[in-house]
Design a protein that fits this description.
Elements lengths: L6 E5 L10 E6 L12 E6 L2 E7 L14 H10 L4 E10 L9 E3 L2 E5 L24 H14 L3 E3 L2 E5 L7 H9 L4 E3 L5 H7 L3 E11 L9 H22 L21
Length: 263
């Protein structure tokens, strides 16, 4: 592959085009796992080559449980990506994680099933450590930028990843809240695990759209759409300022977890 992009963006709900890139072109990347969600958009921003994939496909046609996560991550790997920033929409499980806030989680709970979740499913076995799932270097960069821009942000929190495409029952939502989880979404897993298996740094930038159903606070589709639109603008500003601050060389441990995982 001739194109080399060291930074990857995976866009979630509402982010189908980051709107940052110049000299853009779309390329088809072939993977052993089938087709990614869409052609990969590559372009330049502030002297950095960026690769972008819309997680749900162009036009949001792929539901969370049907995303080809392995193909998406493998395609970025083929392009040389070492760091992934992954915006996604989430609901809130805690009163102080408000609609419109940004969350940089530091833990997750996996409630998905049936999603191919590893590149090591035969022939060679790897037990990758996920004790600390998210890149601390990327977390610090994005958090500091958000604070400097006055964007409401939480550094830390537990993301419950549910199967989807349905939303939770009230009982489920109250259960996750009782566990101490902070936000809930449908797309983090297995994306974060796969990124680690190919030595990538990974950070989800979670955008709170509303309170989950535990709160029994009626919310209209119009309110969710408005909050989503405002969140997308915040994330765009975040990416504009954060990407140039990402150093060329990594100082974290994300690329080294695989060394101790291979059996």
């Amino acid at each position: 592959m001739s194109e080399r992009c060291r930074i990857g963006l995976i866009g979630g709900s509402g982010i189908y085009d980051p709107g940052l890139l110049r000299n853009v072109k779309k390329i088809k990347v072939y993977t052993p796992y089938g087709s990614p969600s869409a052609h990969v958009t590559i372009g330049e921003y502030m002297g950095r080559m960026i690769a972008f994939i819309p997680r749900h496909g162009e036009g949001h046609t792929i539901p969370p449980h049907a995303i080809n996560y392995r193909a998406n991550i493998w395609a970025l790997r083929e392009l040389g990506v070492e760091r992934v920033l992954a915006p996604s929409a989430v609901g809130s499980l805690q009163e102080d994680y408000k609609p419109g806030d940004i969350v940089l989680p530091d833990q997750y709970i996996d409630r998905t099933w049936g999603r191919p979740g590893t590149f090591y499913d035969g022939g060679q076995v790897a037990h990758i450590s996920m004790a600390d799932p998210f890149c601390p270097e990327l977390t610090d960069i994005v958090y500091d930028v958000a604070v400097s821009l006055g964007i409401p942000i939480h550094k830390g929190g537990t993301y419950v990843c549910i199967q989807g495409p349905r939303f939770s029952t009230r009982a489920e939502s109250r259960l996750y809240r009782s566990w101490g989880a902070h936000i809930i979404g449908m797309t983090l897993v297995p994306e974060v695990n796969l990124a680690r298996e190919v030595r990538m740094c990974y950070l989800t930038i979670a955008m709170v759209t509303d309170y989950d159903v535990w709160a029994e606070k009626p919310v209209t589709a119009e309110e969710v759409v408005r909050t989503m639109r405002e969140n997308v603008e915040k994330v765009r500003r975040l990416l504009e300022k954060a990407i140039p601050k990402i150093p060329e060389e990594r100082s974290c441990q994300c690329s080294k977890y695989l060394d101790e995982a291979i059996m």
